[in-house]
Design brief:
The chain has 245 residues and is an alpha/beta fold. It has two domains: 2-127, Rossmann fold; 147-244, Barwin-like endoglucanases (Beta Barrel). Helices cover 17% and strands 23% of the residues. It has six helices and eleven strands. It has helices at residues 10-13, 54-64, 74-84, 93-96, 147-151, 187-192, and strands at residues 2-5, 17-20, 29-32, 37-41, 126-127, 154-158, 182-185, 200-205, 208-216, 224-228, 236-244. It has a six-stranded mixed β-barrel. It has a three-stranded antiparallel β-sheet with strand order 3-4-5. Strand 3 (29-32) and strand 4 form a beta hairpin. The longest helix has 11 residues, at 54-64. The chain is globular and about 60 Å long.
Length: 245
């Protein structure tokens, strides 16, 4: 088994080969936000030991199996992305580094906004257009609000600022700030499951069980259970059971 990791996790301890990856603080590259804005980021510390960025590890393995010479820098990787992916066409490190006057004047001399943040001198990045903006979509389909009720109680994992995971778990500073597992239920769904506000429950979905505190306060729509403070998974799942502890 081959594991590419930042830390010696439980999985890495069982590996035959460990490929040490760099953290985001040790490498440079680009980040595409939910706003569709592509921005540069820069290393904050020197890489530790023999760790390497993910793209370099994969391309060097590829070179050994005959895929060709790997790129020598993250900027060349981004160049290949901009050539292959239409949304990134015309972008490069030079265009991402442009800075122009913004409103509000965050980090500037403005009396109200000036002290709220730092002045961005490293580049504002570029935003690629959504399909709706480029007229590729003529209409949007509205999902049936009763779909969740027909399929059973849907479990959705909601985001929190600090959620347990490989990186956060190693930080003693953030340990007390991590979101605690909480299951948000609509009043009708809670009644159907015989669960009251504040109950400690075990919720099972996709074959995985999570212990959480029930929060019945109307935050969740009927037919949907929101689970906060657990490791991320993509999409939704159908609740198999909710048992009081």
């Amino acid at each position: 088994m081959v594991v590419q990791e930042l830390f010696l996790t439980e999985t890495a301890k069982m590996a035959d080969v460990i490929l040490p990856a760099q953290s985001w603080a040790e490498r440079d590259g680009t980040f595409t936000s939910g706003e569709r804005r592509v921005q540069r980021y820069y290393p904050a510390i020197q890489p530790l030991g023999e760790c390497r960025p993910d793209w370099q590890i994969l391309t060097q393995i590829g070179e050994r199996v005959g895929t060709g010479k790997p790129p020598l820098a993250a900027s060349l990787v981004f160049r290949d992305i901009s050539r292959a992916v239409p949304q990134y066409k015309g972008m490069d490190y030079r265009t991402l580094a442009r800075v122009e006057k913004q409103y509000p004047d965050v980090g500037g001399d403005d009396l109200y906004y000036g002290g709220n943040s730092y002045e961005n001198k490293a580049g504002l990045g570029q935003q690629w257009a959504a399909k709706a903006e480029s007229a590729e979509i003529e209409h949007f389909e509205v999902l049936d609000g009763n779909a969740a009720k027909q399929d059973g109680l849907q479990l959705v994992r909601t985001a929190a600022l600090f959620t347990p995971g490989t990186l956060i778990n190693h930080s003693p500073v953030l340990a007390d700030r991590m979101a605690q597992p909480t299951l948000y239920l609509n009043e009708s769904d809670a009644a159907a499951q015989s669960v009251a506000h504040g109950d400690l429950v075990m919720v099972t979905a996709n074959g995985q069980s999570y212990q959480a505190t029930a929060n019945v306060n109307g935050a969740a729509p009927e037919g949907v259970a929101l689970l906060r403070g657990v490791a991320y998974w993509a999409g939704t799942a159908v609740v198999e059971s909710i048992e009081k502890r």
